[in-house]
Amino acid sequence: MNTEIDKKVDSLLKLMTIEEKVGQMNQYNGFWDVTGPAPEGGSAEKKYEHLRNGWVGSMLTVRGAKEVRAVQKIAVEETRLGIPLIIGFDVIHGYKTLSPIPLAEAASWDLKAIEKSASVAAAEASASGINWTFGPMVDIGRDARWGRVMEGAGEDPFLGSLIAQARVKGFQGDDLSAVNTIAACAKHFAAYGFAEAGKEYNTVDIGTSTLHNIVLPPFKAAAEAGVRTFMNSFNELNGVPVTGSSYLQRDILKGEWGFNGFVVSDWASINEMISWGHAKDKREAAKIAAIAGSDMDMEGNVYVEELAQLVKDGVVEEAILDDAVSRILKVKFELGLFDDPYKYCDETREKEVIGSKKHREAVLDMAKKSIVLLKNKNNLLPLKKEGQKIALIGALASDKSSPLGSWRIASDDETAVSVLEGMQKYTGNSVNYVKGPDVALETTTFLHEVKLNTKDTSGLEEAVTAAKSSDVVVMVLGEYGFQTGEGRSRTNLQLPGVQQELLEAVYKVNPNIVLVLNNGRPLAISWADEHIPAIVEAWQLGTETGNAVAEVLYGDYNPSGKLPMTFPRNVGQVPIYYNYKNTGRPVDKDDNVFWSHYVDVDKTPLYPFGHGLSYTSFEYSDLKLNASTFSISDEVQVSVTVTNTGKVEGKEVVQLYIRDLVGSITRPVKELKAFEMITLQPGVSKTVNFVLNKEALGFYNNDGKYVIESGDFKVFLGGSSDTVLEADFTLE
Ligand code: BGC
């Protein structure tokens, strides 16, 4: 199909020299300070010189309407062809007004809300000169040790695919050329989330089945939703750094999936192929990456240094450049940058849009929907608005930065509503707050490791004293804001520092504790689960954190979140996920040790995938199928009745899982295939209908082909992956 844009791209390409083509394939790091020195050293003029020479097709980390206009002006007015820059930025969970971290948003299972949240982020970023985000991250995460699970949608490929699509739609809208939409980027292609032992940047060695059935589906879904760019990744996959993988980028992405946008490398990941021992020098790295289909070099400068010569030497065909540049120019045309290169550089709009009331309301709504009630023994929650003496304990409760989470480069520190502030609104400032020991020893930045307080317990006694004289103690504990994100793998998933000691000390004097968790990954909190009556998973909820938490604690918002990732009992169980394989020895049959388990911990997780309670209760009944035998062309219709058996209105995510009992490739014990969110008044029942078509019943075989095999299946229904009802059917 030769569209108007394709024709324009072709004619522009014909005018370009090899050097100009290579320039379009170079993404230059601006460090958002356009007047400061060039990233690789030297004066600001050097930075401009790169731009003037046409060596730069894109910049990243430049932001602000004024700053972007300044660099765009050079590209448009001072280069021979005047090709505008595409401006990339990590808009991961909001720009200035922050939404919950992506893992938290995933816990909402609310696709409309997630889409909305991405559109708010796009509106703010685009008002600040940015027209391309490096998101969504669609890596499946099964290993809580990996710090980047906070950026994704959790462990499940089905939920992950739907969320990937919602985020792409939210960022890109219906019209990429609109002034409030930006190009999205599905990253990190592929398998970055499977870093061995959860260690950042580590080797990935997974089989074809996991690659096709678990890792790739969310990427494919993003491509189908029209995502305009992909980012490759730092990891290798089965011995080949993915930045240099023709199999992934050319065969699968641009071949099988027909993706016609462009691929950007991850930050200098082309150069990193040298350290991996896959390329001997920059020249070879540039050659491998370009041939493999990495269209743009993020920050590594190897394309500008090597690629033109490689073409002149006949090592890389010019057609490779033409393909890459056409893809990049196409997206620039789609964004409308050729019509008006300054369309995202309106300082008035920037002032109006960023931090608007509307945006704060949207992120508050998202924050409430992201909260998961993990436990609520004897209905300790909700708190009473009057007549209950409450102590609030924990350094994180008054922290106004940690709740913003990681990956919030454009936002300002200390701008979150803290839990303390949120609760004070309800109690007319009468909440008795005692900070207790610090979580971190000093303020940390995105670039540096968090120095945890592992010794100093000052403040603990005061906390214990306050707890003694209170009816209920709310304790806000968990991870410091920068304990997750890139470069933040952990081997210990317990409450960091001296917080466990604090929790146990308070418990001794007052067991009526509501534990509010702040964290960017599943934590191993077995002790708390055993002893603490109420546990609320409040993640890092962004700008409106405290308001969202207070509304839930005081019962003005009934929580409905469900875990997008399994919580382990201890770190030794990790990776742990609901869709595991049965193994040949799934249960202890003969009272001996020879079955698949650990001898020192229960086989089950602490909280399963999909788990989340409400202030009301739901009962599932009447699971029905429209037949018990189906042919491949039939739809399997499933219905179930859900009743609100509690006293208040509540929302429930009704979850449908299947199991394909026998497969040519073994199948997981459960696979999520559908879900629906319903709202029910107390005492009211609703029949929820699902339709499974054949697409839902198949899987990828080891040749990467999607197959549907006849045989027996089970259907499971419930409010978590630990389902309550099941039925059987046969596919003939
Ligand atoms: C990360 C990417 C990010 C890029 C640009 C890299 O270190 O892996 O996810 O988009 O930096 O900031």
Descriptive account of the structure:
- With 732 residues, this protein is of the alpha/beta class.
- It is built from 20 helices and 26 strands.
- The strands form seven sheets. It has a six-stranded mixed beta sheet, with helices on one face. A five-stranded parallel beta sheet has the order 4-3-2-1-10. Strands 18-26-25-20-21 form a five-stranded mixed beta sheet, with no helix packed on it.
- Strand 5, helix 8 and strand 6 form a beta-alpha-beta unit.
- Helix 2 (18-24) crosses helix 13 (318-334) and helix 16 (419-427) crosses helix 20.
- The longest helix is centred in the first third of the chain and has 17 residues, at 208-224.
- The radius of gyration is 26 Å and the shape is globular.
Biggest sheet character: 6 strands, mixed
What's the pLDDT, averaged over the residues?
96
Task: Kindly name the structural category.
Answer: alpha/beta
- Euclidean distance between termini CA atoms: 40 Å
In total, the number of strands is: 26
Helical fraction equals 25-40%
Shape descriptor reads globular
What ligands are attached or bound here? beta-D-glucopyranose
What's the gyration radius in Å? 26 Å
Instruction: Enumerate the strands of the largest sheet in spatial order, edge to edge or round the barrel.
Output: 11-16-15-14-12-13
- Strand residues, percent: 15-25%
Low-confidence stretches: none
Count of separate DSSP helical elements: 20
